Each structure stands twice: as C-alpha cells, then as structure tokens.
Amino acid sequence: MKPARLISLDALRGFTIAAMILVNYPGTWDQVYPPLLHASWNGLTMTDFIYPFFLFIVGVSIAFAYSKRLEAGFPKGEMYKKILTRSLKIFLVGIFLNLIPTFDFSDMRIAGVLQRIAIVFLACALLFLNSDWKKQAYLAGSILLGYWLAMTLIPTPDEGVVMLEPGRNLAAWIDRILLPGKMWEGTWDPEGLFSTFPAVVTGILGMLAGRILLSDKTQQLKANYLMALGLPLILLGLLWAQVFPINKHLWTSSFTLVTGGAAFLALGACYFLVDILGKQKGTRIGIIFGANAITVYVLADVLSLVFYGWEIGGESLNIHFLTAFSSIGLPLKFSSMVYALLFVGINFIPAYLLYQRNIFIKL
Fold first, then answer.
1. What is the rounded CA–CA span in Å between residue 350 and residue 357?
2. Is 26 left (phi over 0), alpha (psi -120 to 50) or beta?
3. How many Å apart are CA 285 and CA 97, to the nearest integer?
4. pTM exceeds 0.90 for this model
5. pLDDT by residue (tens digit) across 328-337?
6. To the nearest whole number, what is the mean pLDDT of the chain?
7. Please, are residues 7 and 270 in contact by the beta-carbon 8 Å criterion?
8. Could you give the CA distance from residue 290 to residue 255 in angstroms, rounded to a whole number?
C-alpha cells in the first residue's frame, strides 16, 4: 500500500526549521528572552526541543521514504549508495557552513548541526533497511542504557573521577581524543562524537512513529498510539533525570526520552488536527519551509553574513534596527525578537520561490 503524504508531517518539519532559524538569529545575543535560549547546562527550555524534533522528523521521513522503495522492489545496493551520497553531501555542507566566511582550514570545526543530521540519517536509514521495529526499539534502549552507564560510571582519565560538568565528562574527553579540528566550546562540543549515539536514538524514535503512521490501523488509532506513547516516554525521561540530568549539550538519555516523547505528542496532535479533522489553515507556511528544509537552513546561514555582518556607517544592519526600535521606546529583548522574526520572513522568500517553481533540493 502506497503511504499517503501527511500534511501534518510536512508542516511540522517546516515550522521546526522556522523555529530553528528564529532562535539562531536574534537581533543581538545580549538581549534574548530566556525561552529562546538553550539551557546553559542542565535543564530544558523551549529552544532545546527544536533540534531533537528535527532529528525525530528525519526518522519519520526515513520510514515513509524507504518503505515506498522497499515495496517497489528497489535493490538495496542502490539505496545504500544514495544514502551514503546524501549523508556525505549534508556533512560536507555542514563543514562549508563552519568555514564561511574566512575559509580558514587551520581553524576548522568538524562537528556541527548538519554533520550530526548526516550521521543520524545514515545510521537510521541503514538500520531501517536491515531490521524490524522490535530490533530498532531494543537497540534504542540499549544505546540509552549503555550511554547512561558509561557517562555515570566510567571516570574520565584526565580527571580520575566521574563528572558531568561542561568539558569535564567522558563525552568531552572522547571528543578531545578523537574529534579533529576545533570544538565549539574550546574543550568540548555539543555536537561531538560520543553524544551522537543517543541522538541516533532520537531518529529511531521517529522511525517507530513512522511505523505507526504506515500501519493499517485507523487514523484515529494511529493518533491515539502516537500520543499514548509520548506521555510515558516523557515520564520515564523525567524519572531518569533524577540520576542522569536532562542535558541537551550531552544529549543525555533523559533528554532523549523527554524530547522524543514530546515529539510523539506533537506529531500525534498535528496528525489528529490536520490530517484527520482537516484543520489545515496556517499549515501552508510550514509546508513551504519544510519542502526544502535543509536548503532553507543553509540559506539562513549564508544570508546572515549580510544581515549580521554587512556594515553601514560602521554598524551592522541588526544594530541599526535595534537602535531604531529602542529609540521609539520598545524593549531591547522585544526588538531583538522582532528582528529574528523578520529574518525568518526574509528566508521565507527563497523558500516560497522554490516551492512555487516545484524545485525541491535534496541534499
């Protein structure tokens, strides 16, 4: 049976990318509302849900895309080549974004958001083609348990004790040994190697959600299952957080379950409202952003060179904007958020033009 295209999934993907751009490009980092910032270490803000939501959606999309190919009898060898090629392209684009505008290869950062997306896509796609949902669930549980035990029982060699502090933990030590190039925080990187393992679990959770949506159950039952799974995952994550804190930088097991459970709830709710009840008003913006999601993310990084780097009269555009808004009495944090929203709108223009011309760039 050919799976129907889900408007809710397309819209959720697009709104997630729009949210990612919003929080990445405020008018100034000195004036940002706390919910639009990542938690400084342990804890969770609204912003911390965005990246795991996108990885979760990657997993759902894998289930839909490769179920079609398997049913059509595509040779696995051909699929492997395309998976590897796409992963490599996404990874290299991530490297490119880390290099602009100076292209100083001596100070290159290897890790990054797109690089982690590439690795999660590669691991999950290969896993989907070679295992059933039970094996995927077992593997996900094993990774989370193994990561927890490693992080909380194995002392870091340079400290001699178990620690879960910034730059002073097993993941940071492994990254310092194995991760080439510079790191985002000097001695550690939030998109490092070891913490990518639980990030893969986020993608697996998305694949399991995709299995539910591809099942022969009624639409109502699918929505019920998605939301029914979301709540216990959140509760389990909150319970686990008592011994392994919720931490996006380390992508802890508790963080994986809480954000994964929230993604189940969000997808289930969107599926119920949009695809079952037909409440599609307002989804078009998300669909347009989501049609070329990674392309829009890359464009935002490139356009930021102009909107945050181009100087007029010795000051960049964002500073001119904040000065103008503050001069009429508006709070700086509000002005900073408005600038971020305007930047999201600027990025909507190329997304809209691509969508109107039926151009879908698959990195």
1. 11
2. beta
3. 25
4. yes
5. 888 999 999 9
6. 93
7. no
8. 25
